[in-house]
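Problem 12. The chain below contains 115 residues. Write out its predicted structure in token notation.
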Amino acid sequence: VQLQASGGGLVHPGGSLTLSCAASGVTLSHYAVAWFRQAPGRKRQGISCINSAAVPRYYPDRRADQFTITRDNAKNTMYLQMNSLEPEDTAVYYCNVRVAWDSYWGQGTQVTVSS
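Solution.
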């Protein structure tokens, strides 16, 4: 199983980014997939997940409507649309898929929000 995350970069406050996570060796639509992030000096935190029925869930401390998780089954790729980004959103963003007892992570993509 391999997850390739991409789409990070430098964005100004108030800006938007869409992260992608392309999978190989696993069919994402069969499992729950999620996005996490880890800011410098902080623990990795969950942002959002989507299950095999394509029902999304968002962690309760996230700003309403800031993140949208989606999945393209034909491309075997998951996405995280991020809006209204602020400096506190600066972090490395990771995608994750849980297959039975195993958890697989992408390599992370850096998002920096700065003016």
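Discussion. The chain has a mean pLDDT of 94. Students who got a different answer should revisit the alignment rule from Section 12.3.
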